Amino acid sequence: MIPTKANIAKFHAEKRASKKRPRVHSKISNTFIENAISKSNLSALKTLYYLSTVLSKVDLKNIKDNRVIDIKIDKREMLKFTGLSANTIIKTYKQMQETSITFKYPDGGIEGMNLLPRYYFVPNKNIVELDLYVRVANMIIDVKKNYTNLNIQDLMNIKNKHSLRLLALLCRISQYDKNVAKRKKMTLDELNAFFGTNYKTWNKIEDKIIKPVKQELDANSKLSFVYDPNYEILGRGRPSFKDVTIDLVLKKGIQPNLLNR
């Protein structure tokens, strides 16, 4: 059959419609995950990272996503690992428990679950019991993937939330193909979006974020960076900030594929 204009138009319309079909996605009902990952809330990120390290040792392959698993954590080990106080961790677990996640499916199905259904600090024992959905456990494990090629202690020594955020970027840059320059260019808008700030000038971002972050990473991390602001001339005025080039610096002793110990 010879295709008509109407059939051709119908084919392309159906093709466009298929691309617009909704995919399975999750919607976070409060800002816990956003603060932990996007804005790098220190206590939340460190707690999630510790849980990620524990959960990565659990075999979840043959367990359905909607099942709940229970894990037991040594409280002393958790406190030593994160450098946080018990009260801070309890507060973080409470935030997790108050976080609900809604999964929406293409067929119209809606599924909701809590990030942390249950936590229990066993009295007179250094044990913390946690119940987690397998799907949520896998989401937490993904947190650790943002910081591959990084020594765990380096991460836990960081005190500045902006340093943690940039450190995740440096880890990703370190994994670029060997033939690709290990650098990232960012405009003023991109910098503000990345760090969750609203600075009007490059000088402010440099003074408030870039310089303090570089100082902390130089002192505490095997991954650091150098940066070079780029300017452009617009009209007869002074050169205007265009973007900044951030180049990865690998300090001596780090291996390209170093995994967390």
Give a short summary of the structure.
The chain is an alpha+beta fold. The protein has helices at residues 5-19, 32-38, 42-55, 75-82, 86-97, 134-145, 152-157, 161-174, 188-195, 202-220, and strands spanning 25-28, 68-74, 100-104, 110-114, 118-121, 127-133, 183-186, 223-232, 240-250.
Q: Mind explaining what this structure looks like?
A:
The chain is an alpha+beta fold. The chain has ten helices and nine strands. Helix 3 (42-55) crosses helix 6. The N and C termini lie far apart (64 Å). The protein is 44% helix and 22% strand. The strands form three sheets. The chain has a three-stranded antiparallel beta sheet with strand order 1-3-4.
Number of strands: 9
List the total number of helices: 10
State the distance separating the first and last CA atoms.
Answer: 64 Å
Task: Kindly report the oligomeric state of this protein.
Answer: single chain
Poorly predicted regions are: 17-32, 253-261
Could you state the order of secondary-structure elements as H and E?
Answer: HEHHEHHEEEEHHHEHHEE
Shape: globular
Cross-sheet strand order for the largest sheet: 1-3-4
Rounded radius of gyration (Å): 23 Å
Tell me the β content: 15-25%
Helix content: 40-55%
Largest sheet: 3 strands, antiparallel
Main structural class:
alpha+beta
Mean pLDDT, nearest integer?
80
